[in-house]
## 1
Amino acid sequence: MRDRIIDIINDSIHIKERILHEQIDNIIKAAKTIIASLKSGGKVLIFGNGGSAADAQHIAAEFVGRFQAERKALPAISLNTNTSILTALSNDYGYEIVFSRQIEALARPGDVAIGISTSGKARNVLLAMKKAKEMGLKTICLTGGSGGELLKCAGLCFIVPSAVTARIQEAHITIGHIICELVENGLIK
């Protein structure tokens, strides 16, 4: 067990070191994109499935509540939290449109859509990113492995260099936390 623990932690460190060397410019771009949107009255719409849904909720909560500083609430919505919407849309149309339909209803040009999919293949995330782009939103995705189809749909894409879902999710929340801190600091100053 000890050796496995060491391997897991070292793998996570290695992945984050690659992000450190390869993704700083993208993290800055994402933070600046969100800051510009919020300053102009926009909002952030975040979505994903499974563990990525939990990450979407977590990041939205950091914006609406606070990350580290006391400040006014920032408009962010996790599109995977309203069970009535999710079940009605799934039942009436199919699960693949649960996020795109909400983008259509809630988003406005200048908002930011953040789609999270560890594989980059989640059909409902792909369709939502396409709808967001069509509607004039800024689009950011967090994915892993090769980036999948999601890589082609987003204006800015974070591809975590791993095929292990757990390592990808660990990196996604790290990237999310960094962006939250940069956005918070950018809006306070």
## 2
Amino acid sequence: MAGFIGKERHAVDEKGRLMIPARFRRKFEPVASLGVGDEVSAFVEGIYILKAPDRSIELYEPFVWAGMRKSISGLSDFNPEERLLKTLMYESLETVELDRQGRIALSREFLDHAGITKDVVIIGADTKMIIWDTDRLVTLLQESADRFASLAGRYF
């Protein structure tokens, strides 16, 4: 199945609700449950949202987060760096539900983290969606424009 691709502009309403673009909502069709064999809907488990270190918000489907959870669970609670990473990850994580209109409610903590007051850009980044305050994204893109060629050359 193809991942999330593209970008869309939306606005957060006065209650902190964000409409997930219809083309991205289609990805939340029932998926095979991990190891159980029956069908479950992503709506049942919710969507995992993470405060990213770059001041954006990332959205993950449950089956994608399951792989990340497995990696995080493999970290040792007895290694101080690994324990810190676990704490930082889970402190930055919540789950939200899609309502009947295809919206998610973002908490004040998440909105403040990303500097979101109204307008956002939702970027489909294959296995996740990234939500940016429109002005922050424009600034990031302008400041990083000259780095694209060198980054692409280094990693591709």
## 3
Amino acid sequence: MSTTAPHTIACHWQTAPTPHAQLNDWLFDQGSLTQRLTQLCRTAFTVKVIDEGWHTLTADECQALAITPGSCGWVREVFLCDGEQPWIFARSVAGQTALQSSDFAISELGTRSLGATLFSQHAFKRGPMYIQRLDCAQLPISVQHYTQQQPHVWARRSCFTKNALGILVAEVFLPQLWHDTQQLECNRL
């Protein structure tokens, strides 16, 4: 079991929308991001696991999950892709105590989408959506490679709960998503 989180995402989350309606449409969409991406994919929707395992959660993650600071939890970091092209970097975390006392086998997802699983189990309730504009330097090196040297990217997060279990899901929107969806929308005109 590792004791340190491999990466952190800053903690300046807000609920206020941006001035851009199209961006807000993505950031505050309450539906399944997996489903939305799958419909847009030109090849096939894929999930690439970057890292997963037991790690010490950040203070911000512990606060969002209402667990003791410094708690251990399951951390899952993945890319959501169109074929091999990453569109989204997702970091999902759940506290160890609540996860181990639940019947949710997050460690067995492999390359299946966590989002699709959460939305298929109607017992999960989604909390409020929070967004932030992230400095790309805060992202893991493996993710920075896909930011196309942009100084900032947008991210959102929300907590899914089922009984005592909370799963905090943060999703970082990579520039290639905006590039590809803009092309797709132009092709539909």
## 4
Amino acid sequence: MVLAGVVAFMGITTASVLYPDYSIRQDISDLGSTRPPDPVIHEPSATIFNATMLLTGAFVVIAAYFLYRDGGTRVLTVPLAVFGLSVFGVGVFPGNVTPWHGLFALLTFFSGGITVVLSSRAVTRPFSYLCLLLGGISLLVLVSVFFYGLVLREPTPLAFLGSGGVERWVAYPLLLWVPAFGGYLLGGATPTR
């Protein structure tokens, strides 16, 4: 989990630096490829980003497996594995591969938020509060985007951040949790439920 977090942050940072005129107002996945109808792919950013997602997802799936073998319950290990597989899917299907990229990105955000919230029940305080906060922020922003867009037919109150800024409010709490949870486990703690 610690390696997954490090790979994710360093890979996204490296791909961002090498992408010409990249702005964090752009979607994170633009680093791999923008969406059709006229997708833009910048190398080496695309390869770095897609490989980052593949490695991050694989590391999370491996962590879920070892956590399960160490006595972790399915309530935590199954959503964690789904989260890892979803991140892996984002790497397999860059932004120009519709609808698969969007489906895997949405599954990543949803399963990640659920996993982080569920992890709050398996760790001790005060870390459990941090898990609730990070998962809650991610899910709240994700749900608000859909609520404002589909129900109210208005932009989210965070629209001033651009789609990439809003997406980071969903993704970064999850990415911060990954190495934090890994550190918790490395410290010798065992999830309780």
